[in-house]
C-alpha cells in the first residue's frame, strides 16, 4: 500500500519534533555551558595526540623515545573548600593491561589554576612529587612501538588537605589511602600517544 505524501510529511515532522525534544532534554536548563570542575591541556582537545617530545625518556626502555616533557595543564571551578590538589597520570592498558602509573603528585596549592609545560618533569616548588610504578617522580608515555595510540588519563583531585600535609614520595596507592575522606571532587583529561 503506497504511503501518501501527507503521511510522509507527518512522519518527518514527528521525527523532527522528537529529535528536537531529545536535544532540549540533553541541554543544560539555562542553555549555559557546564559549571563543573574541569581539567584541560591548553591548545589541546580532550583525547588529543601528544607529539614525540612528550614521550618518556628512559634509556633502559626502547619504547621511551621522547624528551619526558610534561604537557601544560589548566583547571577551573574547583569544589568549594579545596585547599590543595593531587594529580595522577595512568596508562590503564600498560603492562599488558595491569596498568602503569606514570605520575603521582600532590600538595598543589588551591591558589594555582594550572602547571606550565615541563613543570611536572622537573623539581618544582608548586607540588610534592610522589613515585610512579617505576619509583620515579614522572615518566611520559612509553607505549610499545607499533601499538594503536594508548590513552593516558590525567586525574586531578581537589582535596581538603593543606598543601604541606603529606610527605614526599608517596605511591599512588598510598596517596589514595591518604585521600580517603579528604577528596572533594575530581576532573580528568585523556591524552594519547603512539610511535
**Secondary structural class:** alpha+beta
Question: Sheet bearing the most strands, described?
Answer: 6 strands, mixed
Mean pLDDT: 86
First and last CA, distance: 58 Å
Instruction: Briefly note the CATH topology name.
Output: Phosphatidylethanolamine-binding Protein
Number of strands: 9
Name the strands of the widest sheet in spatial order: 2-9-8-4-5-7
Task: Tell me the fraction of residues in β-strands, as a range.
Answer: 25-35%
Protein architecture, described:
- This protein is an alpha+beta fold.
- It has a single domain (32-193), classed as Alpha-Beta Complex (Phosphatidylethanolamine-binding Protein).
- Helices cover 17% and strands 27% of the residues.
- It has a six-stranded mixed beta sheet with strand order 2-9-8-4-5-7, with no helix packed on it. Strands 1-3-6 form a three-stranded antiparallel beta sheet, with no helix packed on it.
- The N and C termini lie far apart (58 Å).
- The model is unreliable at 3-32 (pLDDT under 50).
Keyphrases for this structure?
alpha+beta, 6-stranded mixed beta sheet, 3 helices, 9 strands, 27% strand, globular, disordered N terminus
Summarize the structure.
The chain is α+β, with helices and mostly antiparallel strands and 195 residues long.
Write the layout of secondary structure elements.
Blueprint: H1 5-26, E1 38-40, E2 48-49, E3 73-76, E4 84-91, H2 94-97, E5 100-109, E6 114-115, E7 128-129, E8 150-159, H3 172-178, E9 183-193
Parallel strand pairs: 2-9
Antiparallel strand pairs: 1-3, 3-6, 4-5, 4-8, 5-7, 8-9
Amino acid at each position: 500500500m503506497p504511503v501518501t505524501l501527507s503521511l510522509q510529511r507527518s512522519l518527518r515532522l514527528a521525527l523532527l519534533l522528537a529529535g528536537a525534544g531529545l536535544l532540549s532534554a540533553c541541554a543544560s536548563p539555562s542553555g549555559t555551558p557546564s559549571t563543573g570542575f574541569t581539567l584541560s591541556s591548553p591548545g589541546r582537545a580532550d583525547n588529543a595526540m601528544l607529539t614525540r617530545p612528550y614521550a618518556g625518556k628512559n634509556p633502559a626502555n626502547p619504547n621511551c623515545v621522547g624528551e619526558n616533557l610534561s604537557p601544560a595543564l589548566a583547571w577551573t571551578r574547583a569544589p568549594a573548600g579545596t585547599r590543595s590538589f593531587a594529580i595522577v597520570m595512568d596508562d590503564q592498558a600498560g603492562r599488558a593491561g595491569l596498568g602503569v602509573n606514570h605520575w603521582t603528585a600532590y600538595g598543589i596549592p588551591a591558589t594555582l589554576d594550572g602547571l606550565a609545560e615541563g613543570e611536572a618533569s622537573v623539581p618544582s616548588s608548586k607540588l610534592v612529587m610522589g613515585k610512579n610504578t617505576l619509583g620515579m617522580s614522572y615518566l611520559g608515555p612509553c607505549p610499545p612501538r607499533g601499538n594503536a595510540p594508548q590513552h593516558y588519563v590525567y586525574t586531578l583531585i581537589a582535596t581538603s588537605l593543606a598543601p604541606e600535609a603529606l610527605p614526599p614520595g608517596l605511591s599512588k596507592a598510598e596517596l589514595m589511602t591518604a585521600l580517603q575522606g579528604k577528596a572533594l571532587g575530581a576532573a580528568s583529561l585523556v591524552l594519547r600517544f603512539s610511535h
